[in-house]
Design brief:
Length: about 140
Amino acid sequence: MEKIGVVKEVGEGIATIEIQRVSACGESCASCKGGCTPTATYVKATNEVGAQVGQYVKLNMENKKVLKAAFLVYMVPLIGMIFGIGLGIWIGELLSYEGMEELIGIGVGFIFLILAYFGINRIDKRIRDKNEMRIEITSVIY
């Protein structure tokens, strides 16, 4: 994944980069009536090319890692919730709670959803500690 951003702060081998998030109107904000305001995201990247504050830089991160992170954030909670709903309905039927199986399923589904987010939080801390999701500055544009 390649992005372009502006260097906002430089430290020892690390730079803070401001990346403009792409809006739903495809960056045609003048013709869009959506009223959205462009927002920026700040990321830390390794600065091996010696970029300075105010310079535009090209950032790179492996596509495989981006897809892995997206799967982790979006699909794992969904899968956990669906599994929890199924398990809750099965438990409700097993315990003979007639007419309450779906309610039990929803409750167990939400519990599994919350557990999935706690699990993602732990995985995120481990990834951050190991510096596995490293973003690097590949070149200075201008």
